[in-house]
Amino acid sequence: MRILDWNGLSSAQRGEALQRPAAADTARVTAAARDIIERVRREGDAGLLALTEQFDGVRLEALQVTQREFDDADRAITADQHAAIERAIDNIRRFHATQSQPALRLETSPGVICERLSVPIRAVGLYVPAGSAPLPSTAMMLAVPATLAACPVKLMCTPPESTGTANPAVLVAARKAGVDVIFKVGGAQAIAAMAYGSESIPKSDKVFGPGNAYVTAAKILVAQAGGAALDLPAGVSEVMVIADDEARADFVAADLLAQAEHSPEAQAILVTTEPALAAAVRREIQRQSGLLSRTAILAQSVNAMRLIVVDALQTAFDIANAYAPEHLILEIREPRQWVSNISTAGAVFLGHWSPESLGDYCSGPNHTLPTYGYARSYSGLSLEDFQRRITVQELTPAGLQGLGPTARILAGLEGLDAHAAAVTIRLEALR
Description:
The chain is α/β, with parallel strands linked by helices. 45% of the residues lie in helices and 17% in strands. The protein folds into three domains: 26-72 and 98-230, Rossmann fold (3-Layer(aba) Sandwich), CATH 3.40.50; 235-379, Rossmann fold (3-Layer(aba) Sandwich); 396-429, no CATH class.
């Protein structure tokens, strides 16, 4: 864990300070994901069952979660856990419901009516990973907008536990959020099954959800080969905290550790104007990490943390915009006044009392966010990602007479005489 003086770094050293972990053996991962996809397409359910036994160590008789498994899951979690899931779903639903857009209708020229309609994607596949930890929060974040969008076919895949069933909290969260067609399949094979279909699993038009390198590779591959569109690049978790002299070292350390515990490759960076705070945060990270359970993961991710000291808050925001973090936390004086300085971030958390953990679980906005710098061009998941926009155009005879000549001239500029003829034949009919 290094404390770095930004002003004392060369351009190359600054680039290194913001360097994300390199993707491990990308060519090998992509090749393995391609082999898995081809096997699923070739063998269907039989291939999925074999791959589940190979990668998850579980021999299943059937892929789909049964009613009995749902009932057992309901009984497996406590009343307080049920209530927490329901409250989180309520906030997520309320926030995403506000994103619904009414149909647009505009007369762009006299007699030329243009509209835009939002319609649900026909079939969506939702992936909930369960590698180092089950993620009922992801089940909620995907199922709620899919349900609000009224997608006719909604299905979910999640890896089985050693008992042969899916994680109970994931099942409860998914069903409460509106998805009750769930299959016990994980990894790249789950993405392949949802993208191309099998005897048991319906084909999806778009797949959603985070995952490991193999899942990410599979999502990219199926989107390129007639399978299913993907939502966004969502990989290793990351956070950047900007802090000034009002920040508490224990709060900052806790926020950094909350992301660092996700995986050994998770990235957590502090940018602060206060050298003393950086030193205090380093001490707090060492103290707090000793109290946490995921010590093997933290031993690696904490070692890769960077604590960067800058001369001014504006420099900190320049660094944040260059880095484009998945999560950006502002533990500074009057943080809202700085929001307009942010141009690239997946999600922003303002002030000392807004831990990123609430965004992960229950505040309302979606926690499926772009990572690895993709926040420069992608947004976090929203209701619109589960919909398509269709435009509708209608011209009256007067509208065609008024605008048609413009289209004919433009068609002539492009040398497309059939385009011009489709207008001319109608204009002549109106004479």
